[in-house]
Design brief:
It is a single chain. The protein has 1 helix and 11 strands, in the order βββαββββββββ. The protein has one helix at residues 36-45, and strands spanning 2-3, 18-21, 25-30, 54-63, 67-70, 76-82, 84-91, 94-101, 105-108, 114-128, 134-137. Mean pLDDT is 86; it is low at 142-156.
């Protein structure tokens, strides 16, 4: 993983995220993956940006997400680019769901646990304050299950 200083004519945001940093910089994140070592290297490389740094990336999928996450350093913008997605937030121990269609977005507030489920083939753009991001596995992953309080495994 390395932050690139050179300009690209085209980059695929599905495989090469962009880090938005202090001073209005934008740098492609080469060789990025969700591997813990790569995430640690990314965090170290952008640490000087603190809570102001943002990662911009496109995700594609088809079906429920496999984890909950939260971003304590700042809000996250999620925009549905195609298809439809359900963003589930855990608010005071209760799941709150937001359905997004193509072109619609929502903001996950800082520190709020959330999960994204793609309703058939879909893609989203996320702009995330990644510093200190936490993740946990989901035990129930269908957004229609368990209206009300989450199971103990799902609680924060």
């Amino acid at each position: 993983m390395r932050l690139s200083n050179h300009e690209r004519n085209v980059m695929d945001l599905r495989t090469i995220p962009v880090h938005l940093g202090l001073g209005s910089t934008a740098k492609p994140v080469e060789d990025f993956s969700w591997d813990p070592e790569v995430l640690q290297a990314y965090g170290a490389a952008v640490a000087a940006d603190g809570a102001e740094g943002r990662m911009v990336m496109i995700f594609e999928g088809d079906g429920p997400g496999d984890h909950w996450e939260r971003h304590p350093a700042g809000d996250e913008l999620v925009v549905c680019l195609s298809g439809s997605v359900t963003v589930t937030r855990e608010v005071d121990g209760v799941p709150v769901r937001v359905l997004l269609g193509s072109g619609e977005g929502t903001i996950n507030p800082a520190g709020v646990w959330h999960a994204v489920d793609m309703e058939g083939p879909a893609s989203i753009l996320s702009i995330t304050a990644g510093l200190g991001t936490d993740q946990r596995p989901r035990t129930r992953i269908r957004p229609t299950e368990g209206v009300g309080a989450p199971t103990p495994e799902e609680a924060p």
